[in-house]
Fold this sequence. Notes:
Layout: H1 2-9, H2 17-100
Amino acid sequence: MALVADAAKEGVLLVSPATLAINLNLLTVGLQAMEISEKAEQIQKNVGKLSVSLNDMEKEWNTLYDHIKKAYNKAADVDQKQTHLKTVFEQITQTEAQSQK
């Protein structure tokens, strides 16, 4: 039993021919689980970075959208004023033309 205890202290796994394949399979599964865990951590970090980028993009989009909305509203105001100015100008020119007759 001292041999088994000494092996365990050193991190050595003692196996028999009957348990070798099972233990190798367990080691393979353990390594695959570690790789999956590392990849999952990397994916979580990347998702975090993507989240920050998406938030930044959303702020920029909202700013642009507000500017476009204000410009659209201002264009309608200017169009109304231009139409009114044209009407007044036409009235003045008609009045001027009639007074010259």
